[in-house]
Amino acid sequence: MVFAGWFKEVSCTNRWHFAAEDAADRVEADTTLYAKWLPKAETPAAVIAYRTETLTGLTPGAVYLIDGMELTASADGSVPIDGKWFGKTISIIKKGNGTDTGDSNPQLLPVPKRPAGPEKVKPKAESKKNGNNGKLAQTDTTMQYRKVGSAEWISVTGEEVTDLEPGDYELRYVAADTAFASEIVVKTVKKYSPPKGDGDKKDENDGGTGDVGVNPGGDGTGGEQPGDTTQGDGKKPGDTDPGSGRKPGDGTNPEGGRNPGGGTAPEGGGKPGNGTAPEGGIKPGDGRNPDGGTKPGGGKEPGDGTAPEHTVEDGRIVPVPGKVGGTDESGSTDGGTGGNDAGNDGAGTAGNGMGSDGDGTGGGNEDGTGDGADGGESWAEAHPYAVGKIRETLTIPVDAGAVIVTVNNVDETLCTAQAADAVAVANAVLKEEEIGRVSQGETIEIRIDVERIDDKVSEQEKSAIEQEVGDARKEAPGLTVGMYVDISMFLRQGKGEWSAVHRTEEPVEIVIDMPEALQELSADFYIIRAHEGECTMLKDLDDAAQTITIETERFSTYAIAYQPADKAAGRCSLCHICPTFLGICYFIWLLLIAAAVILVIVILLYRKKNDGERRKEGQS
Q: Residue 196 — very low, low, confident or very high, per pLDDT cuts 50/70/90?
């Protein structure tokens, strides 16, 4: 019941107006007032319509107090979701009419925040002047795009958007039944820019002058047809080797050939010496294509890898016996590209690329490529199914189907992370029946978005984390939050919509890279997870200063906090909690004292026993 005021008669028809109100009633004799009580309006049962971004299920025309805003439901019983509600729990109260009903009890409704936008999309500039043929690559059918300033969103139909004029383009993931449309990201398609050294290029068949080699032989200027084999005849820019045109020092190499001497190739040719290759080529040193790479072994997504064949046993994904091993990643031990040419003799400087399977360096081929020597087992070898940095995406073949696991580092300049085992992720996320469908030929995708959100974390979560940190300062003085990270997980079956995964059945191991600013601190680090209003302190499972490793089965907001070394002084180096004496934990001292006391007691008892035996011998 809701109190509705004081009235002059039992029927509660005429309201009594107090002095603070207009036209206040006066007490001129003994007066009896009657309290009026009204039943509460029914508690709202609003639901979120993610695609239309509205609250539905309300009474048409009724007035509601939502998160402090008084709103009237439309004819279809809905109200639009305000931008301030995303990522917080809102209160919804149905207003009473004051005659028959009072205000309802509040409905508390969590409104999820928008998913991260498609940061992985790569813009590509025009390939020729006024070509209007720019591209947005690494797209998929869950996205929409529009040019900045346009009101209409256009659905993406494939793995790239083509024939774009230069300019800024907005992209987002489309809304699903269980997720809002994502945050908007902006990508810039640039105008055509002629390659360096081709400024005097007349047409597509004219190679231009190119960049001259370090030790050119002859003037080599004014060439009309690069690649001519005659030295010094003016037709081959920067030629240093008569009769071949193939040694380093050749300033121009037509149709995308390699040019260790630093020249520029017409039509997208690369300049070896900086690790790049002609469009679509393989960049020596890391086995990846500069534009995302091509997945060896029949992969479908750029920049990813393919795991060995897997099967299903007891409802879990396991490797096929005899096919256990690392992922197929071509060029993983290639050396780097060549350095400066040696001019006349044409011998390129050896490459110095890092093999991804260890700290090996490249060999010394003339073009700068080489095989990286094995430098011993690396973190990547110990985690053959890691995904996030070594590769963005890993496809796990499972009988007739596949599971695709992707870690999307939203802004790699701010924060990066990886999942240590993509197969473990799949087993933690997928139910047994879903794994069965994969085995029968279905494809399921799992995406983990990692984003630093120092300026985006909700006030509710920040307040909860700060309270947890404040409580922890009793045991860890000086504890301070260094950064906030959002780790979100999404699932898509086939070509369906992405849906959020807030909790898994098993913990997943996530390795977060520490920013350099935090690495430089001499401090102990802690991880606090905020999930559905509950904060939990997690352990850092590794000893590396460069990373923090956690196991978690909940995906939401995380805070990385640190305790400066000077604040931790006098605390145990094992648990960072107990005080110390002479650098040794009080708990250890207690154990030593207890052991000493026990030893003394044993010695005394032993002596007492011996003294008793001697007395008996003396008496006898």
A: low
pLDDT tens-digit readout, 21-56: 667 888 888 888 888 888 888 899 999 999 999 999
Sequence letter at residue 367: D
Backbone torsions φ then ψ of 596, nearest 5 degrees: -65, -45
**The residue to which tokens 């260094």 are assigned:** 482
Token pair of 100, please? Answer: 């028959």
- Given a cut of 90, whether residue 134 has pLDDT beyond it is yes
pTM of the full structure: 0.42
Strand segments, DSSP code E, in 63-116 are 63-66, 69-72, 79-80, 88-94, 107-111
- From CA 71, how far away is CA 94, in angstroms rounded? 10
Instruction: Assess contact for 231 and 239: CB atoms under 8 A.
Output: yes
Select 122-189's CATH number: 2.60.40, 3.30.200, 3.40.50, 3.30.420. Answer: 2.60.40
pLDDT tens per residue across span 512-526: 998 888 887 778 888
Q: Per the structure block, which two tokens stand in for 432?
A: 């047994």
Instruction: Extract the tokens encoding 233.
Output: 């005849």
For residue 130, the Cα-to-chain-centroid distance in whole angstroms is: 36
Sketch the domain layout of the chain as residue ranges.
47-111, 122-189, 393-568, 584-620
